[in-house]
Batch of 3 targets.
Target 1
Amino acid sequence: MIQSDKGAGLPDKKDKTLSTATNPKNGLSQILRLVLQELNLFYSRDVNGVRLLYDLLNSPWLQALLKVYDCLQEFKEQKLVPATPHAQALSCEVVEILRETPNSPDIQELRHILQAPHFKALLSAHDTVAQKDFEPLLPPLPDNIPESEEAMRIVCLVKNQQPLGATIKRHEMTGDILVARVIHGGLVERSGLLYAGDKLVEVNGVSVEGLDPEQVIHILAMSRGTIMFKVVPVSEPPVNCQKMMYVRAMTEYWPQEDPAIPCMDAGLPFQKGDILQIVDQNDALWWQARKISDLGTCAGLIPSNQLLKRKQREFWWSQPYQPHTQVKSSISISMEEEDDMKIDEKCVEADEETFESEELSEDREEFVGYGQKFFIAGFRRSMRLCRRKSHLGRLRARGCCASGRCGAGGAPYEEVVRYQRRPSDKHRLVVLVGPSGVGVNELRRQLIELNPNHFQSAVPHTTRSQKSYEMNGREYHYVSKEAFESLVYSHRMLEYGEYKGHLYGTSVDAVQAVLDEGKICVLDLEPQGIQVARTHELKPYVIFIKPSNMSCMKQSRKNAKIITDYFVDMKFKDEDLQEMEDLAQKMETQFGQFFDHVIVNDHLQDACAQLLSAVQKAQEEPQWVPATWVSSDTEP
Ligand SMILES: Nc1ncnc2c1ncn2[C@@H]1O[C@H](COP(=O)(O)OP(=O)(O)OP(=O)(O)O)[C@@H](O)[C@H]1O
C-alpha cells in the first residue's frame, strides 16, 4: 500500500556518460566492476600488490556488501506515499465482492485474512498514518472566551502498577497546587504531557482548589485506570540541558530516615560505594539519580552534594565531643599504642638474640621458587607488626565515629568515569586490605608466586640498620631517620609506622619502581593508606579481603598460625577470630566506599583464584575511577 512516487525508468544515454557514482542504478558495485576490469589487465603481469587488491575487490562478501549499499542508496532517494489513505474501506469492499464470488479455498483464505482483527487494526493504523490524522477531534472553541481566561490543558494518563513519577507542592503565596518535579523515567515524564510548574486545576473532575497536597495525593491514590488532569500549563516548560554525570557515593543515605525529603516514596536509598547516574541537578537541594545496577528503572530523589554536606556537618556537630577522633600522626606512637605493645610483649619477652634468629629464618621464607629462585620483599615480620600497631591504634581511635555517617568530612559524592587501561599505560596498583590475620599476606604471596615476573611487591623503607646478610633495596631500602621523615613530609609515604624504635614504611617511589618495570605491584595496605594511594599516577584497585562466618573460619583456620610479637607460632583462638570479624565490619563501615572488589577468604584456593581474576579484570576491563584520575592524564 506504500509505493514510491519516483518513476522506475532506466536512465537515458546522456546520464550514462555522467559520473557513474551519481547514478544509483549503477552505484558502487558498477564502479567496482570497472576497477576489476582494469586490474585484470595488470593481474597477469603480477605488478606488486595488484593480486592482493584484485582478490580483495573480487571477494564475494565485498560485492554482496556493496550491492546492499546500492539498494539502500536507491531506497533513500525514493519518497514514499500511500497508494490509498482508505485501506480499511477498500478492504471491506473487497470482502463484499468476495462474498458474491464462487467459493474456493483461496477466496476463503483471503476473506479470513481481511476479517482478522489484527489485520483490521493494521489497516486502521495505516490509514491514520496515511491521512496524517494524529490529533484528536476537539470541539470548536466558543467565541465568547474572556481575554483573561488561562489556557487549560486536559491530560489523560493511564495508571499502571508504577507510580506516576511526579511530586506536587502548594505555592506559598497563591495556594495553587503545582507539579513540583517530574521524575525521570516515570510515567509522567514519558508521556511528555505534564511539566514542573504546571498548575493543577482538577483531578478526575474534582477541583483541587483549597485542597492540601496530601488530599490531592489521596485522590490520585484512589484512582484506577485513566486519570484526567485539568492543568494550566507553565509558560516555559523547563529544559534539562545538563549533561549526565556519574558519581560514587562516599556515604550512605536512607530516605525513610530523612524527614526532610520532599517525597519519601520518591527517594533513592544508596550505600557507600554505589555508583549513581545523576540525571537531574536542576534543584539545588534534591537531585534525581539512578543506580547503574538498575538503569532501567525510574530515577529517585537524592540529597544534592551541597545538602548532604550540610547534613554531614549537622550530624558531626550533634555528636558529643570525642577526643579520640583526632587523627594521630603515626610517626609518633601514642600512649595507647605503646600500651598495646606492652600487652603483646607481656606474653614472651623477646631478647635481641631471638629477634635476630627470627629475622634470619624469615629470609629463607622470602626465597621461594619452583625450580627458580627469587626474592619477594615486603613480607617481613617487623614491618607487618609495625603496620598492625598503628593500624589497630587508629582503627580503635576512629571506631567511635564508625557510624558511617560522618564520612570524615569529605565530599559525599565523587565524580567517576569509566576507565579502560590502554596496553601502553602502566598497570594499576593492586591494594589488598583486610583485618589482621584474615590472609592478606598469604593471598598476596600466592599471587606473586604464580608469576613473579608479572606480579611484585614494593620494597619497603626502614631506619633500622642493615644486617650482614641483607642487601640494600632487596629486603628494605635502608635510610636515615632524617631521610625517612623527609619522605613523610613530602607526602611520598603511602603508610609508615614505628616498631621497636625503628621506622618502617612503603613509599610511592617504591611502588612506581615496580610499575615502571611493566609489572603489577601488589601491596598490602592498612585502610587509612588507601586515600593516600588514590592518585592518578597509581590508580589503585582496592580489594577487601573479608573473613567468612565464624563457624567456617574455625574450620578453615584450624591449622593456621598468627604472626605475633612473641616468636611462637600461635594458633587462632576464638577471640582472635571474633576480633577479626569485628575489625572487618569496622573497616567496611568506614572505608567500604573505596573498595572496588570484595573477596571472602574461606577456601584459600578459591580466594586465590578470585584474586587472580579480579586483578586481571582491573587491568583489562573498564572500571569506574575518579574523574580527576583520567582528566589529569590529558594534562601536559
Ligand atoms: N583461606 C585460608 N584458609 C586457611 N588458612 C588461611 C587462609 N588464609 C590465610 N590462612 C592462614 O592464616 C594465617 C594468617 O594469614 P596471613 O599471615 O596472610 O594474615 P594477614 O592477613 O596477612 O595478617 P597480618 O598481616 O596481621 O599477619 C596464615 O597461617 C595463613 O596461612
Note: The two ends are 61 Å apart (CA to CA).
Target 2
Amino acid sequence: MLPELTDLDHFRSLLAQAPAADPAAQAAAAERNGQLTKPPGALARLEDLAIWYGGWRGTGRPSIEKPQVIIFAGNHGVTAQGVSAFPAEVTAQMVINFEHGGAAINQLAKLAGARMDVQALDLDRPTGDFTKGVAMEDADLLAALQAGWGLVDPNADLLVVGEMGIGNTTPAAALACVLFGGEAADWTGRGTGVDDAGLANKTRVVAEGVALHQGAIKDGVDALGCLGGREIAAMAGAIAAARMLRIPVILDGFICCAAAACLAQSSDGALDHCVAGHQSAEGAHPVLLAKLGKEPLLSLGLRLGEGSGAALAIQILKGAVACHSGMATFAEAGVTDG
Ligand SMILES: Cc1cc2ncn([C@H]3O[C@H](COP(=O)(O)O)[C@@H](O)[C@H]3O)c2cc1C
Ligand SMILES: O=C(O)c1cccnc1
C-alpha cells in the first residue's frame, strides 16, 4: 500500500525517490527475446515493448492480466472565457454516460479486458479561472493528487488514465507552455472543435494565464496548482502512484501528456514507466510527445480523450507481451537458428 500524501512537498519527495525498472528482469527478457522463433528484430517495437514491460514488472516472462483504466472528471473555471465548443455541463453528463457504459472508453476498456473506474472530482465546484488567480489552492491540489494516487489498484499490471473535463485542452496547453516555453499559439489547439475566432480567444486565455503565473512556478507541481485542473492533477497523481508500484502506464492524448509532463519536470526518467499510446489530432500533441521523448504506438487522428487512444493501445502491448512470453524458443521448437 502507498502512504497517504500529507502535503505537496511529501509528493515531491516521493517523486524524487521513485523506483527504477529491475535491470535483471530486463536483461532476462532481452535474453529470452533473442531466443524466440523469429528472425532477430522481426517483431521490432513489439520486442522493445515486451522487454520494457518485463523490466517494470520484474520478470523476464511477463503477462498482462489486470489492466486498469481510470477516468477522472473535473470542471474548469476558465470555461467562463468561452474556450470550448461545448458547455461545461457536458462533463457531469458524460460521467453519467461512463457509469452507464455508453461512452467510447467503456467499449475500448471492455475490449481490452480492463477494469474501469470513474472518479468525478468536485464537479459542482469548478477550479478558479487561471486568468484571474490560481486554478487550485494547495489543499485543493493535494486532494486532487491524492484522488489519483489512491485509486490505482496495487494489483493492476497496467494502467491507463483518462479524463473528462470540458475546457481542459486550455489548461493542458497552458501547462505545456509554462513547462516547455514558446508562445501560447504553439500549444493551443481546437479541442472539441472551436472555430478560428474561438482558437484566437483560447490562445489569448492561455497567454494570459501563463503570463500571470509563470513567475510563481518553480516546478511541475506548482504548475498544476496555478494552471491545471483537478482531473489533470489526479492523472499526475495516478501516474506517480503507478511508478511507485512499478505498474507500467500507457499515456493518452494531449491532456494526459500535459499531466505527465508536470511529473517529467521533477526528475529525469520520471516517465520511464510510461509509453505513449497514441498521437492525437490536437495540434501540439506531436511536439509535446517529442518533448517527453515518447514515440506514439498509434496515430489514428483521434481527438477524444477519455483514455480512448491509450485503451486501444493496451491491445498492442498485450500483443507484444503475448508473443514474448508465449512463443517457443528455437531450441524448444527444434527450429534451426540462423
Ligand atoms: C460529448 C463529449 C465527450 C467527450 N469525451 C471527451 N471529451 C474531451 O473534450 C474535452 C476537451 O475539449 P475542450 O477543451 O475543447 O472542451 C474534454 O472533456 C475531453 O475529455 C469530450 C467532449 C465532449 C463534448
Ligand atoms: O488529445 C486529446 O486527448 C484530446 C483532444 C481533443 C479533445 N479532447 C482530448
Note: The pocket of alpha-ribazole-5'-phosphate (ligand 1) is lined by residues 84-86, 90, 94, 163-170, 191-192, 304-306 (CB under 6 Å).
Target 3
Amino acid sequence: MTDSHDPAARHAPAAVTGPAPRSGAEPAAPPAPAPSSVSRRRLLGTVGVSAAVAGAALGAGGAVLATGHRAEAAEPATVPFHGARQAGIATPAQDRLCFASFDVAATTDRAALAALLRTWTAAAEAMTRGAGVPGHPGDLQSPPDDTGEAAGLTPGRLTITVGYGPSLFDDRFGLKGRRPSALKPLPYLPREDLDATASDGDLCVQACSDDPQVAFHAVRNLRRLAFGVLNPRWMELGFGRTSSTSPSQATPRNLMGFKDGTRNIDTTDAALMDQHVWIGAEEPQRWIRGGSYLVSRKIRMLLEAWDRDSLGDQQQVFGRDKSSGAPLTGRAERDTPDFTAKADGTYVIAADAHIRLAAHENNKGLRILRRGYSYTDGIDPVTGDLLGGLFFIAYMKDPGQFVTLQRVLGQHDKLNEYIEHVSGGLFATPPGLAAGQDWASQLFGSRTV
Ligand SMILES: C=CC1=C(C)c2cc3[nH]c(cc4nc(cc5[nH]c(cc1n2)c(C)c5CCC(=O)O)C(CCC(=O)O)=C4C)c(C)c3C=C
Ligand SMILES: [Fe+2]
C-alpha cells in the first residue's frame, strides 16, 4: 500500500491488488493507535457499559491484504489514508457516498473535542484499510468496538474526508486564531431559499466507497464514537457519482440523463489542481495549506417537469447532446464547445445554456472540481412527485470560486426552471495526515490539550 506524501504517488498503480474481506476471525491487525484513555472513558461513559454481546471482537480484526487476487480490474480496493492530501478529493470518485454534518455538543470542551479527533483518526485509518474500529476486543462488558455490518466486505476504495465549518472557529474552542481566511459563511445567492436545519455544521465527514454499506458503516461508526461529543446535524446518501474526476473513468450520467463531468478538472493534472483546488502559500494559516474548501449543495431536480420537456429543449438547457454528451457545436463528447458558433443568427449553444454560463472560458478561467452524487428522498407524500436530484459537492481553493459561478447560474441558467437548491454547506478540508499524526494536533496545533 502506498504511504507516500507525494500526491502523485497515490495515483500510481498501487501494488495492492485488493484486500481480503473483513473477518472477525482474522489474525490481529497491524497496530493502530488506540483511542486515548480520555476518549475511551468518554465513549464508555456515554454509550453505557451494558451490552454484553457475545461473538468475535470485530475491533481487532484487521483485514489482511491478500496478494494474487484482484477485487477490481481498474482500481485497487484500498486507498491510502495517509499522505500529503486527504483522500476523497483527488481520488477517482467512488460509486457511493455517505455524507454527514455534526455540531459540537454544548457540554463538549476543547479537550474532549481533541480526544474525539484522535479517536476518529485511528478509526478512519483502520476502516479505510478494511479493518474494524480499533478498541478493546473481546471486552464482553462493553458494546463492540465496531458495529459489524462491514465485516466480510471489501473496503471498495473507502475514503473518509473531514472538513470544518466556519462555526467551529468561534470562541468555544480557542480556534479563532486558526480560522482559514476564506472560511466564512457564504453570502445569499440568487434564487436560493436554503433549509438552515439541513445546512452547514461545525464538522463534516464525507465517506465514499464503491459499496454503500461500507460508506454508511464508516459514518455510523464515527457518529457512534462521537456520542455525547458531537450531535448529528444532517446526513445525505448518494449514488451514481455524477462526475468523473479522472480520465480513466467513463463519464456517468445524472438523473436528468446527461453525461456529467465531461469537462471536470482532471485530478491527475497537478498544475490544474494547484491552480484551482489546493489551498496554497497565499493562505496565512499554514496548517490548512494543501487542503481545500468543500461546497455542498442539495439540488432538487423537478423531475416530473423535466420528463415532460422535449429532447430538443433538454439539449438546449445544457448545450449538449443527450445521447453522446457532445457539445451542440461538436460531434464527440470531448470536443471543445464553440461558444461563438451561430445558426440562423442565434447561438448554437444558447446564451443561457448551462455549459456556456459555467465554462471557464466565460468565467475568466475560473474552475472547480465537481465530485457530486445523485440522491433520492423517495416521493413527496402529498403530491406523489419524485424527490431527488444532485447532491452537488465541489472542491476549490477559495469558496469565492463557487460564489462567482453560482451568482451567474442562479440568475441566468436555463436549468433553473427544473431545479431548486434545497440546502448547502461550506467546510475547510485540511491537508492529509502523515503516519502518526492526527486530526486533533493538525487542527489545534501545538496548543493541543
Ligand atoms: C456553481 C456550480 C455548479 C452548479 C451548482 C451546477 C449544477 C448542476 N450541473 C448539472 C449538470 C451539468 N453540469 C455540467 C457542467 C458544468 N457544471 C458546472 C458547475 C455547476 N453545475 C461547471 C463548472 C461545468 C463545466 C462547464 C464547462 O466547462 O463546460 C454539465 C456538462 C458536462 C460536464 O462538463 O460536466 C452537466 C450535464 C446539474 C444537473 C446541476 C444541478 C442539478
Ligand atoms: Fe453543472
Note: Residues 110-128 form the longest helix (19 residues).
